[in-house]
Amino acid sequence: MAPMLDKKARGRGLSPGDAILAGGLPRRAERRAPTTPVSGVRRLLARLDAELARVDADKIDREDRIPPAVLARLERLGVLRLNLPRAYGGLGLDRADYHRILARISARSLALAMIVTTHQSLGAAALVAAFGGPELKAELLPRMAAGELSALAASEALSGADPTLAATTARRARGGWRLDGRKLWVSNAVGARWIAVLARAPGGATLFIIDARTRGVSVERRCRFLGLRGLGNGVLRLRGAFVSDARRVGAEGEGARILLALLGEGRLTVVPRALGLTRAARDAARAWMLSRRRRGRALAQEPAVAARLKRLDALVARLEALDAAAAAWSRAGGVGRTESALAKLYAAAAAWEAADAALQLRGARGYETVDSQRARGEAAVPAERWLRDARGLRLVEGSDDLLRWAVARRGLDLARAGARAPRAAGALGRRAAALAAEFRALARARGDAVAARALELADEAARILAESL
Ligand SMILES: Cc1cc2nc3c(=O)[nH]c(=O)nc-3n(C[C@H](O)[C@H](O)[C@H](O)COP(=O)(O)OP(=O)(O)OC[C@H]3O[C@@H](n4cnc5c(N)ncnc54)[C@H](O)[C@@H]3O)c2cc1C
Question: Is residue 156 among the annotated active site residues?
Fold first, then answer.
């Protein structure tokens, strides 16, 4: 049976992502030109560049640890309060400037960028800024803006991609709550002072802000990953940890809804993270192909190599356009779930493709660690680190298939509800129309092939979005 969809979803006023699933393209207003930073931000960018040039990202990767001095210097520049409101000590930067800074940091170290985004776009600081009441904001945001790091603890061994199944409990205690449970893969767990915890209260999933120094809160162990090393990720143990009622965010039972909204918004910062990494990979690949000569001519002139470099330029250009749109959606507040998922899907896939292409174009050197390259006396390029880091982007904050399936379900729902967006001209318009026609056909079909094809259509929708902006 066709699900109930409101009038919006029946064709009028569709969000940019939904418009694509229903056979159209985002409206012109959604295609934002990149903005230029104001002079204060330009100064900050110059100081940040100087600071990042001193960061040894290979050492961070090798030791799986960010030296506290690095974080302290970035904190002094304001990097941990870029996105937080001015009224509470934040810089209150425009989203385009925030994204600019994230892209710069990501080009140097994706792990470092994730510490920054976990704090202010996903963790307790983001949660309090977006959903906290005035008293909680006044109590915590100035401290978070001053560098007290924050985190989000949602995932658990059994709940994983569906945090609503969280087994961590919150039971009533005098003046507040006591939390018990074990949270996995908490980024910033090592070093965070404030942790947003999703727990099951009698009235349903609820979010609390826990002070990491509270009795009963501990980081049980560090989690080590293929890439994104240095993240300070860990297992958080809660044993009767007390949290006052004042540190509950939203009403009892509202945790899942708030978390979904927070994730939808935070996910947009994957775009500048992917952009930074893709630019670095593209630049290193081009520099190498221009310098490497065979029979008197640069490899960059070989048609196949030139085609690869052109593709890398196209990925950067599409990510730049997507980044401008993502910043605009974020600035306007309340980004739609479809475009947030599509933007994240595209960005993570683009970064993965760029890292893979850079590794390929660097040849054996691409597969070789930086330490090994240096030991042979060559200038080192961390292509293999970029590949490991980029793979992580396809898992964090909504894994590829989870997002694909969310998009696919939305496409099938829109098809069943008869939603049709106005047809757009040109090759891209035809691709969007074909996409919606396939969703309509799949909505009538049955069998295993439906889900498999629907997942592929989600990727096509993500490409159409990025190419339409
Ligand atoms: C580097 C890193 C940092 C992280 N940081 C944090 C953090 O700060 N806080 C936090 O709470 N968590 C964090 N996570 C956890 C991350 O968000 C989880 O990977 C996520 O919650 C998924 O849980 P899971 O791995 O148990 O997946 P599972 O639930 O076991 O799912 C496994 C796979 O099955 C597929 N799948 C599952 N459900 C669906 C579905 N409905 N439709 C389609 N496919 C599906 C997907 O491919 C998914 O990747 C981090 C993970 C990593 C790797």
Answer: no
